[in-house]
């Protein structure tokens, strides 16, 4: 949600508001100005990893129509789940020596998943070698089955709130037509399977044109990480076939987890729907952000241009709006990184610092951000990073491999780039995006992988804060603004 006019309703502790303490309430009242598929989640610590999230769907206004037809719809919220609690995960990630939280035990579809068993165990080539799940269907862990009628078109709304993993979704024997991305209509395109990264939302259409006497698998598989976690499975149930009848074919086989060309091909198929707003032809400011894994004071941290983000005790929105001194680092973070940095080599260990400075953007200016991926602390350890911007949609101008150079601008798509609020950068590659700083407020821009943001992989943009008339007292009652809660 852009939260235009209500930046305090963005819901990010230390940025737009104070954390909501036990026994307190905070009412989020805002205008939804665009139909689409969204979700909400906790933004304090690693509460999303603990399950604080849910779907949020905005219907079209009365009298308006979607640019595509469908007979029914489903909504799937995709996530990952650990046996270890989120507080213990936070301690591990902040320890010296560093302790990685490990891979999730289960992938969840609408909060449901199985552990140590498989719905598809009866296939002899079941790679996981898990026993069959003995389910009656009424257990909390039983899959949520999608019931459909033959020869209909259905809309499937998808949102990924995963904490670590990237996903690939497929429906056995069915084609998928992608029509919406992050609340924006796109030119429809057909695929056999699709990637979805943490922070992203999509709508796809599928036609129930298969044998109605059979049921079909809906599968989720892991992308970009060696898949230790088993597939998540549920069933597309054709009426009047009993939902207890398992599909006769094995679940869809996803592309190899490290087939990044497959992932890039999917991302490069996404274009704005004809008639969508086009980006300004040029930019006023360009910020190049180098993503690296560093060691800062002996701790493993993610950094942007060698600065690892640490949230302040006083929310930025209140401290900037009312000119409170000493609330955060007054020094602006760097707009780029050294030109001689070799992204293919592991990052040197002692080259990072902590910080919580702000990128102050001129109101109504056009900003380009180049996200540059690099090596980690060991050879060939570059990872996928889905980056999410609060308060804005941005145009994705393009992707590239290797180190971004000025001549790469020639391949920018200024004709029909998609509007998104989340963009992925692939290993050892870059992504370019453009947005207009026209939403008064203070907005996080961060990797949507929960542990990465917790470990410092994010920045803060501020624009037009002087145009905000009043910040509600409920957002100010902590840190240095606590004494200001009576401001009128």
TrEMBL record:
PROSITE patterns: MULTICOPPER_OXIDASE1, MULTICOPPER_OXIDASE2. Its cofactor is Cu cation. The keyword Repeat applies. It catalyses: 4 L-ascorbate + O2 = 4 monodehydro-L-ascorbate radical + 2 H2O. Residues 2-59, 74-240, 349-464 form the Plastocyanin-like domain. One of its GO terms (molecular function) is copper ion binding. It is an enzyme of class 1 (oxidoreductase). Keywords: Copper, Disulfide bond, Glycoprotein, Metal-binding, Oxidoreductase, Repeat, Secreted. Belongs to the multicopper oxidase family. PANTHER family: FI03373P-RELATED (PTHR11709:SF394), MULTI-COPPER OXIDASE (PTHR11709). This is L-ascorbate oxidase.
